């Protein structure tokens, strides 16, 4: 069994936000390999988050963010299960990060489920009718359209967007926070205003 130092546990905690004992167990299981331990914690977090996703989230925060210069502003509602969690620094930091994300990348929807079905169908039809798609063999056109739809979702859906310059999506960030905070977290809605934007 590998000797797990406090520095190694601290490094894993800083990287994942998981608790001390969880980090120590994951490092022991991974033989001291921080990358493997991170994967173990992420898998456990996903399992824990999946269990919590059915729980009702009615507390939380409505927060605002005004970008420097006052040209872009965001109002966002993020829910959790208890007002205790809503008052924690970690939850408030998450809400602020999400507001900054909305200001910077201007998503139109929270997630794929909130896109009107007729808009998805219109988008599919446009992609299928595209000249480049039509030149491909018929049996792979559907795959091409689905791949292009995924790219479109990553532009218009907050939860599908890449989070900052990290190698994870906003949805994965929220899942990680659900695992570390221990409550279901839901982005309920947001609105983004840009100076001079057409209504």
Topology:
Blueprint: H1 6-16, H2 20-29, H3 34-52, E1 59-66, E2 72-80, H4 83-86, H5 89-105, H6 117-129, H7 131-134, H8 138-156, H9 170-181, E3 186-194
Antiparallel strand pairs: 1-2, 2-3
* Average residue pLDDT: 87
In percent terms, what proportion of residues is strand?
A: 5-15%
> How would you write the strand order of the largest sheet?
1-2-3
Low-confidence runs: none
How many helical stretches?
A: 9
Largest sheet: number of strands, sense, barrel closure: 3 strands, antiparallel
Helix-strand makeup class: alpha+beta
Order of helices and strands: HHHEEHHHHHHE
Oligomerization status of the protein chains: single chain
Principal-axes shape call: globular
Computed Rg: 20 Å
Q: Give the strand tally.
A: 3
Helix content: 40-55%
From the N-terminal CA to the C-terminal CA, the straight-line distance is 63 Å
Description:
The protein is of the alpha+beta class and 199 residues long. Helices cover 55% and strands 13% of the residues. It is built from nine helices and three strands, in the order αααββααααααβ. Strands 1-2-3 form a three-stranded antiparallel β-sheet. Helix 1 packs across helix 2, helix 1 crosses helix 3 and helix 5 packs antiparallel against helix 9. The protein starts with 5 loop residues before the first helix and ends in a 5-residue tail after the last strand. The mean pLDDT is 87.
């Amino acid at each position: 069994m590998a000797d797990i130092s406090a520095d190694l546990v601290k490094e894993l905690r800083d990287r994942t936000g998981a608790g001390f004992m969880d980090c120590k167990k994951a490092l022991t299981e991974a033989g001291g390999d921080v990358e493997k331990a991170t994967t173990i914690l992420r898998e456990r977090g996903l399992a824990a988050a999946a269990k919590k996703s059915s729980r009702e989230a009615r507390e939380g925060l409505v927060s605002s963010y005004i970008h420097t210069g006052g040209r872009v502003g965001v109002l966002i509602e993020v829910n959790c299960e208890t007002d205790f969690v809503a008052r924690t620094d970690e939850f408030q930091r998450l809400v602020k990060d999400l507001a900054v994300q909305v200001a910077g990348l201007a998503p139109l929807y929270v997630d794929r489920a909130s896109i009107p079905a007729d808009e998805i169908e219109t988008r599919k039809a446009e992609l299928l009718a595209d000249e480049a798609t039509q030149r491909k063999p018929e049996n792979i056109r559907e795959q091409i359209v689905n791949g292009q739809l995924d790219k479109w979702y990553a532009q218009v859906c907050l939860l599908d967007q890449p989070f900052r310059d990290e190698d994870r999506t906003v949805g994965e960030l929220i899942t990680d926070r659900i695992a570390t905070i221990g409550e279901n977290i839901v982005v309920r809605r947001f609105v983004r205003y840009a100076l001079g934007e057409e209504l």
